[in-house]
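Notes continue from the previous slide.

Worked example: a multi-chain complex. Inputs as given:
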Amino acid sequence: MINNRQLKILQLIIDDFIASGTPVGSRTISKKSSLGISSATVRNEMADLEDLGYLYQPHTSAGRIPSDQGYRIYVDSLSLDRALGLKERNLIRSLLISGKIKAEEVIANAAELIAGITGLVVIASYPGFKKHALSNLKLIKISDSKVLLILISDNEVVKDLTLSFSGTTQAVLDEISDALLRNLEGSTIEDINVKKISKLKYDLENYEEVIDYLVPILRDTLRNIDEVEYRVEGFDNILSVPEFSDGLKARRMYQLFENKSIFKDIFDQITTEGIDIKIGEENEVAELKECSLITTTYRYQARDFGKIAVLGPKRMDYRGIISTLEYVSNTLSDIFSGIYL
Amino acid sequence: MINNRQLKILQLIIDDFIASGTPVGSRTISKKSSLGISSATVRNEMADLEDLGYLYQPHTSAGRIPSDQGYRIYVDSLSLDRALGLKERNLIRSLLISGKIKAEEVIANAAELIAGITGLVVIASYPGFKKHALSNLKLIKISDSKVLLILISDNEVVKDLTLSFSGTTQAVLDEISDALLRNLEGSTIEDINVKKISKLKYDLENYEEVIDYLVPILRDTLRNIDEVEYRVEGFDNILSVPEFSDGLKARRMYQLFENKSIFKDIFDQITTEGIDIKIGEENEVAELKECSLITTTYRYQARDFGKIAVLGPKRMDYRGIISTLEYVSNTLSDIFSGIYL
DNA sequence: ATTAGCACTCGTCCTATTTGAGTGCTAACT
DNA sequence: AGTTAGCACTCAAATAGGACGAGTGCTAAT
C-alpha cells in the first residue's frame, strides 16, 4: 500500500504544511529530508501519494496539500512519546489545581488553559444533571409573585429556576420544600414525574391547593432542564486563524456557537472514551467539515464523563494538542476523584 | 457660525455617507438637494464646512466624510418626530411583554430585540444589588464540603454563591439561615459587615463554632459581589460591519467584551438620565474611539436605573437607533413599574 | 452670490508582462 | 530497476502601465 519512505515523505509534507500553511514542493522536502533523496525522486513519490489519495494540488503548478485521508494516516502514525515535557506537565497541573471550588469552575479553568496553550477554540461539557439523583431542594421566596427553586444533585450540580407563584410565605415554602425533598430525594431528575409529586398531597394535607398549583409548574420546569451544559473558551483565537478570519466565516462560527444544541451534536458523535480525532469530512456536523476536532473524556464520578474538545482548522498541531488534552483530562479525572484534596 | 444652508448640506452629506459608506461628492448633493443648487456652489459650501471642521477628505480628489464634530452637529439637529411608526411601536411592545418572569430575562430579551432591529451590538446593565436590601437568604447543603448561599434582594435579584464549608447538616444550616435573615433582613448588602454577622452569636448560642467559621467566609464573599451585571447581545453583528470585519479588529472587540470591567467603564461615563450619545473621540473608553455609543436609562424601581447601550461604527442610523432605544427603555420602565401586570 | 467650465489629482480598475515556484517527463546514470 | 539531472511547461502572484472617472479648486462670466 504505502511504503516506509512514502510515509516519511508524507509526514514531512504535513509537518511543513502545518507550519507554513502553503503548498509544499518537492525541493523543500528533498532539502529537509535526511533520506538524501533528490527532488525528482520526491516528485515521483509525491505523484504516487497523490494517486493514493493522501495529497492533492490546489492547481497544476503548485506544491501539495494533505487531503483528509492524508491527515488521517499522519495522525494515526503519530508518536506521542515525550510530546509534553516535565516542565509543561507540572505547569499544567499546578494551573489546574487552582483552588476552584465548583466543578464548573474547574472545567472552565481547564478549558481556558487549553485554549491558551493551543490557540484554538475549546468546548467543554459539564457532567449531566438529569441522570443524577436529587440530593437537596429548596423553595425560596423572591417576591409576592415569584419563587426560586433550587435543585442540587448528588454530583454537586446546582440548578436554580424561577417560578411564578404567588401568595405564600417562606414558612409554607419551607414545609413544602421539606416534604418535596422527603419524597423525591434519591430519585433522578428525569424520574421525577407527576405521580411522585402528586403523592405529596398526603404528606401535606393543609396545602392541597398550593400543591395543585405547584405540580404542573414543577413538571414543566423539570422537563426543560438541560441534560448537560457547555462552556466555550478561546473563541477569539479563531478570529486570528487565517482559515476563518474573514468576516462572514467568523460570523457563521459565532452564530453556530450561539445555539447550544450544536454542542450536543458535536459531542454526540463521539462514542469512544479517551482521545478521539475527527478530521474534516469525518465530522458529522456539517458546519465543521472544514475543521478538525480533537476530543477527550474525563472521568467525573464512578460512571459519569464529561468531554473536552479542541476545535480548529485541519492544519493544527495534532501532536501537541493530543498530548495536552490527554494530560489535562487525566489530571481532571484525578482532581474529581479526590486525589488532590 | 454655520448657516441654514450649510447645515442642510451637512445633513445630506451625512445621510448619504451613513447609507453608502463612501465619501460624498458635490454632484451627488447637488442632484439630491431640493435647494436647486449647482455642484460648484455645493463645493464652495463644502470647503467652508471643512474649514469649520465638520468634514474632511480622506485624500485630495475624494468626496467628503463627516468628522466627529460633524456627526455631533448632525445628531444635535436631528428631529425624532415620527421616527418610529405605530406599527413598529406596537411590535416592539408586544415583543417586550413576552411573559418572561425574571427581570434579567426581560432585559436580555430587550437587548436581543434591539440588536436585531439595529444590527449592532447591544450592552445592557441589570439593576444593582449591593445598594438594595436583603429580603431573603438561605444556606443549602451541596455536599459534605460545600454549601450554597442564596441571597435575594428587594429588587428581586438572586445571587448564588458556593462556599467551602464542611461537616454540617441541612437542619443546622436552616437554623443559621433563619438567624442570619432575622439579623440582616432589610440591610443593604454593602452594609452587611462583620459586626452585624458577629451579633449572630447571641442568637445562635449552640453554634458558636460554626459562626466563627462562617463569618470570615461570608464577609469575603459579600465583599466580592459585583454591584451590577451586564449582558451583551448581537456581537455577531459587528462581524458583518465593514468597519470591524477584519480579523484583528474583530478579535480586539471580542477580547474587549471578555473583561467585564470594561462595561463598568463604558457605563460610568454616562451620567445623564435618558438618551446619551458619544461619538468617536467623545468616548472616554480608548477602545471605543472609533465607535459611537448610544445609551439610554430605564427606570427599574423608585430610584434604581439600568442602562442599555447600542455600540457600532460612527456611521450608524442615529435617528432609528435613538427612537428605538427611547421607546424600548420607556416600555421597560412601564413593565417594571407594573403597568402591564 | 452663483455657476459653468476647465485643468488637475488620485484612487480604482483593467490588462499585459514578468517572475518564480512548482510540476511531469525523458533520457542518462548507477 | 531505482535514481537523478535536465528541460519544457504551467500557472498564481507580483509588477507595471494606462485609461477611467469621480472628485476637487479656481477662474471668469452671469
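Summary box: Residues 23, 25-27, 40, 43-44, 46-47, 57, 60-63 of chain A lie near DNA strand C (CB under 10 Å from a C1'). Chain A has three domains: 4-76, 86-127+228-336, 134-223.
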